[in-house]
Specification:
Layout (H helix, E strand, L loop, with lengths): L1 H13 L1 H38 L5 E5 L5 H9 L3 E4 L2 E5 L5 E6 L8 E5 L7 E5 H7 L6 E4 L2 E10 L20 E6 L1 H8 L7 E8 L6 H10 L5 E6 L8 H38 L1 H9 L4 H28 L4 H9 L13 H26 L4 H6 L2 H7 L8 H12 L1 H38 L4 E5 L11 E12 L2 E10 L16 E5 H6 L7 E6 L4 E11 L6 E5 H7 L9 E4 L10 E6 H44 L1 H9 L4 H8 L1 H29 L13 H27 L4 H5 L3
Parallel strand pairs: 4-9, 6-8, 14-18, 15-17
Antiparallel strand pairs: 1-10, 1-11, 2-10, 3-4, 3-10, 5-8, 6-9, 7-8, 12-19, 12-20, 13-14, 13-19, 15-18, 16-17
Length: about 750
Amino acid sequence: MNGLGKRIFRDLKDNFLRWLALFMLIFMGMYIVVSVVGAVENIIVQSRKTAEKNSVESGEFKTFFPLAPKQEEFLRDLGIFLERKFSIDIKRKDGTVIRLMQNRGDINLVVLDKGRFAANNGEVVLEKRYCEENGFFVGDKIEIASIEFIIVGIGTAPDYDLPVKNLSDMSANSRQFGIAFVTLGQYNGVLEDGAKWNEDYTYAYQLNNGVTDEDVKRAVRNFGDENLILFLSADENPRILAAAGDMVMNRQVGLLAGAVVMVLFAYVISVFVIHQINRESGVIGTLYALGVKKKELLVHYMVLPTTVTFLGGLTGALMGFSKWGMEKQAAGTYSYFSIPAFRAEYPLYLVIYALVMPPLISVVVNFAVINKELSKTALELMRNGGKTLKYCNIKLPCKDFVHNFQLRQMLREGRAGITMMVGMFISLLIFMLGLNCLILCQHIESDGFKSLEFKYMYFLKYPKNPVPDGGEACYIEYLSKTEFGYKLDISVIGIYDSNKYFDCHPSGKNNGVVIGNSTATKYRLDRGDKIVLTDREKGIDYEFFVEDICGYSVGLTVFMDIVSMRELFLKEEGYYNMLLSDRELKLEESELITVTSRAEIEQSLTVFTELMMPMVIMVTIVSAVVFFVVIFLMLGVMIDRSVFGISLIKIFGFRQREIRRLYLNGNMILIALGAVVCIPLSKALMDAVYPVVVANVACGLNLRFEWYLYVVIFLGTIMVYFIANILLMRKIYRIPTSIVLRNRD
């Protein structure tokens, strides 16, 4: 076996660039998987640990008016911990909104990244994402409610992982909204101007002694159902553990994608090994005749590919776990969610996955294909001509010599051709993942902009009669729908038929509704379908009949006739709780729950594209590199297998252009036909799985491509092939005519 061992090093030296290319592909694949999944695992596990350590709430409820002290005491006597988290939304001169709160005591404790907690009047702790977006640091001064504060701390709160202003917001916009914490005395001082600020009365609670969320909800309702605005358990709150929830699907997708890519790479390696066995079949047959065992040869031909995959996985894992891996991949999450800076940890299962999975797949795949090749007799191996003769005997319909030659060449290199098609399909799947993401974000932005006809949206504590001049009265309720394990809020908006801001006309009969286009695409609904929505607070399901679909694409929205909606939800005649307007209305802060402007909604719509663009670029580059390397390596194998023939036709005087036409251009047809099939197939498959990928995002699923994008992708595929073709022609130029003389019988 010493001789066979030396052949391993000789093969590595002779085909160093080939093995290096394969090593880099495996390295890149494992780097991406380990860095992405490692970052995901760290965020999921440590977010949950941090939330538990800092006493994240079990739930919260909001009331129109504060509970009486006896009511608060009654709730505590149930066996729960109860804490006020009252707040004031203050609009600063720069247009941004600060939600001012008092320092937390026992629930939802703030985690400081820098500085200390506010201990005196004039001191404030700001939420970190707002600081990052607006350039604030510890020691800076900031004006809030006409008071100059010193920023003494920057941190995060576990009940604002997703720092959205309103629970129904599609996305966080930390440039425009942040939270701040001051002393109780300072908070009360701001409240002294009672006519100016509208205080939000929200209570956080933690369960204890076997008490359930339903027990708390029932007790609060007993105080007066008309006082309860909202009741949310922690698992229903989109702000809590939002980063962890956003990452769960990425973990499964990352591990599966890594396994699929490794199978492709292992199969590519097996093609090289088969090529090497066919090239050395005479030597192998001779070794069989001299008494060398099949097992010894099997091990010999598996050592190098298994070693390459192991080293590729090892170095990819090391890079993935480094600061250039997980830290880089987590940067997007840290730039969107408001979470502490977690210390890097290395999950044991991911270490095993990275070190064991690549060589294991290589062993399994290569054993299957190599064992079959080495099962031939010594005589068959020494003759080494069966396959070629088999393809030569196939009758082809075409009478043109060149076309017949190209067809026979493709048949002879069927294994490499199949590998190219599989590589193309997997590369296109990866590419479509990123392109779908980009197209989805662009549609969210453009469709949302087209939907917005109003300039201001006012949410009221109670209706004001008569309706203020310039305001369009609407009635909104938040119901929910669960799909793929994620529960998302859907806005049910009651409107008059004359409403000028929404181009839809629900009939008001039999619970008929008009659904927004985003709702239709999200849940794959059409006219005539039924949709069941749940009132989470009351535990009631409502079934609605889809009468029509309108072009409104901001969030998930359903429109209903306002009169019918009042009857359904048992509201009095004339009730409304939302006003739309094309100009700012003069309303008292004490009458309002919140105000949302068109500009704020438009800014939130642009966040998706900004957030996802780095991932789209990375996925596009990876898919292009994988496709190029697979094409380059497989065409290289085809040329290696045809060295004798190329050398022979050079002797007969064929020009380089003619040689390229015979040995490379035929594959152009294969690539073109493969692209025609694989592009729409990969698009259809990715469209089918995308609802699961973005199941936790409250947005539509408009994934439609313009027709010219298919043409661009096709031309890009052909361009990659031509680049590989041009590079491989240099290899053909270097093939000497002396090979014919060296290989004569």
